[in-house]
Amino acid sequence: MLSKSQARTFFLGGTVVTFLIFIGLTVYSMAPSNDQSNHLNITEQVIKGKHLWETNNCMGCHTILGEGGYYAPELTKVIDRRGAPLIKAILQSPVPWAPNGRKMVAYEMSNEDADAVIEYLKWIGEIDLNGFDRVVSPLAKDKLKD
Amino acid sequence: MKFKSQQVAYWFFALCMLLFALQIIYGFIMGFARIGMDGLHDWIPFNTARAVHTNLLVVWLLTGFMGAAYYIIPEEAQRELVSVKLAYVQLISLAVVGVLAITGYHFNIWEGRKFLEIPRELDYLVVINVLLFLGIILATLFKGKRQTTTALVLTMGLVFAALLYLPGMIWFDSQVTDSFFRWWVVHLWVEGVWELIMGGILAFLLIKLTGVDREVIEKWLYVIVGLTFLSGILGTGHHYYYIGVNKIWLVVGGVFSALEPLAFLAMALFAVYMYRKGEKSHPNKIALFWTIGASIVSFIGAGLLGFAHTLPQTNIFTHGTLVTAMHGHYAFWGAYAMIVLAIISYSLPNITGRKRHDNTNGHLAFWLSNIGMLGMVVALGVAGVVQVYLERRLGMDFMIAQEEAKIHFVVMLLCATLFTTGIILYIYEFIKYGKPSDEALTKKDETVLVS
């Protein structure tokens, strides 16, 4: 029968081994040769867009890369689906955008800020998501071509 | 109750009740918004309600864990807390940080990173607060007469939870890297170190409620937390399938996520077996219901429902849908909310000296909240499947699919009302117990175990 010290060894040993494998896999997937996110294309504007995305808690309603609030549409391929001009108009609108009655906060963004958010969304749209991008945005242009 | 300083726990539990009640109110705001009744939009838009709802959940559970530690550690270490005054300072500062954060969410001051919305300036205050808490707990534990496995596992869970908060404080330019390390906090908390805390509290409660030998319970506690880390650490990979990182996580995450229910199954079997093995019966039946209930519901909510949508082949359709919300509700409820409610139910009679063990309100609170939550989870699950099918399989527009799923939120709100009735009864009972009493110090809990 298992003794308490054997049980402790199982816990400590298992934890250390799996944690070391986890760190190894993290280093592996973060290596530049395994980059799927076009990291080199992250410009100052994209960084500013990400900052605006976070400071307005867009993820509180929308999802991006499949993560967020499930209250408003997934925005991973939104530039493809809707086009930049419409998105810019929504970001700059002084009244809440409300498709089917579901309201979005009216952010009244400046030209500069709205452009930064669009650049950020464009960069997001180019990420290789292991096939998810084609499932999550069935109306995206690249899907419609097939 | 043996030590006067254990009374500190009462005030942490009282804060828990307050925050839990607020969390439910914000949940209703979200539910009504989903069926088109969003009259509060100008003051509390959905993203505010959601950030408050999820952050209050995290804070009330952490407050509950802290209260549990302040109750359990003195009893396990066989000594008073090293400083009661500092414990109260920690409680008040925790409440102040919470109020500041939640007020900020109503004025667009936040960080928009799911579950980690607290602005980084406040993160530093959180770190100081948690360091103070850990200082009190560790000093008490190591100055104590004994260091039990239960106390060590509980403390280890709390220390790791604090350490894992740090990766969430690093700024990354890339959304992908940001998301990758955000899961180090969120996943490794809820599917890793929080399970250590849950295991520690569960072991303490089983020792007290069943009278089974401590050595037997603690041996199996090691096996359970061993299984938790063995599957949970690499199981983090299920969050990495489709966020823009290497395909290797599809394999690693898929295999180890499939093993994650084992830890919860072991926990459920462990609790039920120890209850059956126990030769003594504790009069606090309500605490026993919550304890065994937590182990079983966590297996269904966190284990089975988690497994149901973390296979890569399924997750490609369910990732980022209401299916996640379905799993999230039952997992948090079973694994963490119920275990906090269990330790509160167990400790209240001992802290206040009033043995309101086995009353109708207490049982009603248990059943109404559990049936209500199950109904909410089913409604969310159906809404999730509708969303997946219409939006992801048939390619319908997001809002058209949402309109079709609306009716399921009406059902969810009805079930949420049932759930809330149960929680109101629980809070009513909490208030009826009254405040801590020094008379309770003379009453030994162990003597109430009857053969």
Automatic annotation (TrEMBL), chain A:
InterPro entries: Cyt_c-like_dom, Cyt_c-like_dom_sf. Residues 44-125 form the Cytochrome c domain. Keywords: Heme, Iron, Membrane, Metal-binding, Transmembrane, Transmembrane helix. It comes from the Bacteria. Pfam families: Cytochrom_C. One of its GO terms (molecular function) is heme binding. This is Nitric oxide reductase NorC subunit apoprotein.
From TrEMBL, chain B:
It is found in: Membrane. Its main location: membrane. Residues 8-451 form the Cytochrome oxidase subunit I profile domain. Pfam families: COX1. GO terms for cellular component: membrane. Keywords: Electron transport, Heme, Iron, Membrane, Metal-binding, Respiratory chain, Transmembrane, Transmembrane helix, Transport. GO terms for molecular function: cytochrome-c oxidase activity; heme binding. It comes from Cecembia rubra. It comes from the Bacteria. It is a multi-pass membrane protein. InterPro entries: Cyt_c_oxase-like_su1_dom, Cyt_c_oxase-like_su1_sf, Cyt_C_Oxase_1, Cyt_c_Oxase_su1_BS. Belongs to the heme-copper respiratory oxidase family. This is Nitric oxide reductase NorB subunit apoprotein. GO terms for biological process: aerobic respiration; electron transport coupled proton transport; respiratory electron transport chain. The chain crosses the membrane at residues 12-33, 53-73, 85-104, 124-142, 149-172, 184-207, 219-242, 248-275, 287-310, 330-352, 364-389, 409-428.
